[in-house]
Amino acid sequence: MAPLETALNRAVALLPQPDLAERQAREILRAVPGHPQALLLLGAALRRQGKLTAARDTLAPLAGSQARAPSVHAEWALTQAALGEVPAAIASLRHAIGLNPGLPGVWRHLGDVLTQAGDTKGADHAYGRHVESAINDPALMQAAVAMNDGRLPEAEHLLRAQLRQYPTDVAALRMLAETGTRLGRDADAEKILLQCLALMPSFALARHNLAVVLFRQNRPEEALPHIEILLAQDGKNPNYGALHAACLAHLADFASATKAYENVLANYPLQPKIWLSYAHVLRTTGRRAESLRAYRTAIAQAPHLGEAYWSLANFKNEALTGAETETMHAQLARDDLGVEDRFHFHYALGFVYEQQAEYEKSWMHYAQGARLRRAEITYDADRTTRQLARTRALMDAAFFAVRAGSGCHEEAPIFIVGLPRSGSTLIEQILASHSQVEGTQELSEIAGIARLLGRNSRTDDRYPEAIADLDAAALAGLGWRYLNRTRIYRKTSKPVFIDKMPNNFIHTGLIHLILPRARIIDARRHPMATCFSAFKQHFAKGHHYSYDLDELGRYYLDYLALMAHFNTALPGRIHRVHYEHMVADTEGETRKLLAFCGLDFEPACLRFHENDRPVRTASSEQVRQPIFRQGLDQWRHYATWLTPLAARLEEVMPQDG
What we know:
CATH architecture of the domain at 381-652: 3-Layer(aba) Sandwich
Shape: elongated
């Protein structure tokens, strides 16, 4: 490489340190006076140091002599913009674009200057052209390769470096947000995408990314307006349509969700995962036969789709066919089957063999499914134990006594807490059959409040200690926040509604403090029955403790210890319902339940199976039948393999085993 070329490349490399780049450029010009590229580098270095008059004196004559050099006119435009000569800067940039519309960064610069001029529509268009031409930007290409290779920290580093130099690079902002979501930082990605869309409202990919991020954070009501904008631009886009339907379903607008899925499938029928989601909605609304057809359509299109088979198995009393069982075994024999499909097949086969009373085969598949699922997730049992111990240490009777009378005193919510598979859906269905009670779904707002408190805590971002910092007004505000943010899930004018999120038992103290008149019901079932039923159930999300017998037993004991503590610290505040007692004396237990909730007895509560309300949980089939007795002792068929669990639970087992 020639010495001059080497010196010029060094000056380019030094531009992030513009004082050094200026020195290098001046040395070149002493050796080669008037060299155009050296003058361009000198002007760029001067501008970056804020020496605008000197930059103008260098670049203005260069632009006059280099009429066909787009990079010169682009740099001259940046100096003009910095000097406040915005119309001239726009003209210079348009001249540069006319010479080379693919010049890296030139469209971004035009967007910046048009924003400075107040031309938001023009800026939006310019940023859009920048996104189209970003493939020519070496820095973004390098980051894209790192992202495609899964080297996310490296991609993030490259993108942040690009944005330090060019904060309005909308392509880099969107890529950085995508990197954040892939690293599990949805809240950070949301902020970046909002910044991106403030610069370029028409950036459809960024808007879709934002809608996905909001949906993943359980904020579908905020995602919907963005999806509606996207659908107005491209009404047949299957990604937009499927996300729209998913948001509607999450908000319990199942009629609209069904229609939205049907619209997508009418235009794009070969979409097995959309058929799967459509089947879920049909099942939730009790459209059993149509749901089965939709699941089987998904299977016909994608025989490897394990979740579709598992979903069929979850119909409980709808046995999978022999041919479908053979297909599952054939799929498991494949070397290229993904882990998610594989563990779904194992769970489905576990159910098939349980129905056939082949319990050893059934256990083998349940256990293998759980092993595969456990390997895919992160769960720290010690952390759970420590957190619940801290909750007990903080929230004693004195803690609650000092805060008596605080919170929001609305009576609307009934919280059903406990462990999954403990009869909570049955309790919900009984209550939701009352004329004054609306059943909603498993709402995430209490957990969201807990996360908010943890982030805002002065005690090293910890929950529950942050609760101690809240005064009466703050507690009341959180109660109103809960009611306001859950209002969208209420579809009737009934005065009482149910929040059946099992893991809210962790937040019993918080619920009491922010909503002291809300009812709290603790759903209980035989320890072994509860835990085995959870172990053999694959949960779409959460419940990470349930895939290892010892961790499951520990979690159950932690749950019992916490609820026993709250029963002591808040006597009479929590009503316990034992599933076995409800099965044995449905009317008597129902009357006690209604009395605790301040509701008059209504015979419809005993005919809960006639209630056609949507039910989203794994128990949806059982609660559409009269009282379900078959599962009371099902765990005993697996006692041989449940020894580790039984040993862990020995101290809390009922007298009769």
